C-alpha cells in the first residue's frame, strides 16, 4: 500500500515549498509515524536552500509497524532526532557510539524525501524513542536534538555534581543546558551579553551570572572545570581562557557562524592543558537516558508554537533566523 505524505521542503530561493512524498507502507523494522509536533532547530537553517524535506526533531503517534518491530505498538508516542539508522556492527556501534558510525544515516544526507516538517514519516525502529508518559509531546520535540546535544556532554564527558560548569548563551541550547546541569547538581555559571536575562537564568537554575558586553575580565572566584558554548557566534576567547581551570574542557555545541572556523589562542591552551571537545548529538542509550532524566526532573524547553503548515514553517524559521525565538520553536499539527 502506497502512503502519501504532505511535506515542507527547502528551496534555492529561500522559500518553503509544500510537496508530496510517496512511500510504501512499513515493512520489517520500519515504523509509520503520524507527526503531531516538530521542533525548529538551527540545523534546519543550514538546509533551507536544499531540495529536501526539512525538520529532524519529530514527535508523533505510531500508526503502523513492520512485522519485525516488537518495541513499539500502534498508538505509542515516539520521537526521533538527527540520526536515522546505523550499521550496528562497526567499531563505533559496538562500543556504544553509534552517532559516529561510518555508515550512519542522518538528516541532511539521507531520506531527503521525508522529515519532521510534514504529516507522516517512516523510520527504522532502532532510532525511534518512546516519549515518557509524563512528558507533553510539544516539550519532547526540542529534546530530540537540542536536549540530546547538551545532555550528551554531561553523560559522556564526566561532568560531575561537584564541578563548576560555564554556559555561554541563554538560547535554544543554553536554557536547556542550564536546567540539565542544575538538576544533576553542578554549579552553573551563565554568561550572556547583557544583564537582561539574569533573572531568567537564575530561575532556570544558574548559581552565578556574568554579562560579557564591554567587559575586560570577570571578577569570579573559583575557575571553571567545563565551558559549554551554546551560541553560533563564538565568544571573546581572551575573556574565558583566564577563568578555565588547568586541564579544563571547552565544548562548542553549535556550528560557528561565518567561516565555520574556531581560532583559539595557543598559549593559554598550551600552558593550561585545555581541551576543545566536539560532540555530535548523542548515542541512542544516552538519548533514552536524557528523556528519562528530563521527565523525572520536569525539565522543559521554553517554547513558541507555530502551526505545522507552510505559513507556520516560514514564520517559525524567520523568527529563529532573526534571533527572536524564545527559545525553541515547535510546529504543531492542526487537528
Automatic annotation (TrEMBL):
The organism sits in which domain of life? Answer: Eukaryota
Domain called Enoyl reductase (ER): residue spans: 15-331
Does the record carry Oxidoreductase as a key word? yes
CDD domains attached here? Answer: CAD1
Signal peptide coordinates:
none
Q: Keyword set for this entry?
A: Metal-binding, Oxidoreductase, Zinc
Gene3D superfamilies documented for this protein: Medium-chain alcohol dehydrogenases, catalytic domain, NAD(P)-binding Rossmann-like Domain
The record's GO molecular-function terms, alphabetically, read: oxidoreductase activity, acting on the CH-OH group of donors, NAD or NADP as acceptor; zinc ion binding
> Cofactors per UniProt?
Zn(2+)
| Record-stated family | Belongs to the zinc-containing alcohol dehydrogenase family.
Descriptive protein name: NADP-dependent alcohol dehydrogenase C 2
Organism of this sequence: Mycena albidolilacea
Amino acid at each position: 500500500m502506497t502512503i502519501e505524505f504532505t511535506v515542507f521542503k527547502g528551496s534555492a530561493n529561500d522559500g518553503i515549498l509544500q510537496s508530496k512524498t510517496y512511500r510504501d507502507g512499513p515493512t520489517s523494522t520500519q515504523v509509520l509515524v503520524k507527526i503531531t509536533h516538530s521542533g525548529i532547530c538551527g540545523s534546519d537553517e543550514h538546509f533551507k536552500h536544499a531540495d529536501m524535506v526539512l525538520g529532524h526533531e519529530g514527535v508523533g503517534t505510531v500508526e503502523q509497524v513492520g512485522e519485525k518491530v516488537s518495541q513499539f505498538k500502534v498508538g505509542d508516542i515516539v520521537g526521533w532526532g538527527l540520526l536515522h539508522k546505523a550499521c550496528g556492527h562497526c567499531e563505533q556501534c559496538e562500543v556504544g557510539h553509534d552517532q559516529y558510525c561510518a555508515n550512519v544515516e542522518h538528516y541532511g544526507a539521507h531520506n531527503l524525501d521525508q522529515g519532521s516538517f510534514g504529516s507522516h514519516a517512516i523510520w527504522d525502529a532502532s532510532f525511534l524513542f518512546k516519549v515518557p508518559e509524563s512528558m507533553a509531546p510539544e516539550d519532547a520535540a526540542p529534546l530530540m536534538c537540542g536536549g540530546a546535544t547538551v545532555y550528551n556532554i554531561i553523560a559522556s564527558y564526566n561532568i560531575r555534581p561537584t564541578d563548576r560548569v560555564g554556559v555561554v548563551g541563554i538560547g535554544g541550547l543554553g536554557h536547556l543546558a542550564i536546567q540539565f546541569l542544575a538538576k544533576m547538581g553542578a554549579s552553573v555559571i551563565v554568561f550572556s551579553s547583557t544583564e537582561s536575562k539574569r533573572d531568567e537564568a537564575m530561575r532556570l537554575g544558574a548559581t552565578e551570572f556574568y554579562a560579557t558586553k564591554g567587559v575586560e575580565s570577570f571578577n569570579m572566584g573559583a575557575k571553571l572545570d567545563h565551558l559549554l558554548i551554546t551560541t553560533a557566534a563564538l565568544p571573546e576567547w581572551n575573556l574565558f581562557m583566564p577563568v578555565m581551570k588547568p586541564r579544563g574542557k571547552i565544548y562548542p555545541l553549535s556550528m560557528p557562524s561565518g567561516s565555520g572556523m574556531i581560532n583559539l589562542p595557543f598559549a593559554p591552551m598550551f600552558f593550561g592543558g585545555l581541551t576543545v571537545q566536539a560532540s555530535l548529538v548523542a548515542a541512542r542509550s544516552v538519548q533514552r537516558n536524557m528523556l528519562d532524566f528530563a521527565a523525572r526532573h520536569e525539565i522543559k524547553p521554553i517554547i513558541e508554537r507555530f502551526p505545522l503548515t507552510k505559513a507556520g514553517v516560514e514564520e517559525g524559521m524567520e523568527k529563529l533566523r532573526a534571533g527572536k525565538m524564545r527559545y525553541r520553536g515547535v510546529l504543531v499539527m492542526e487537528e
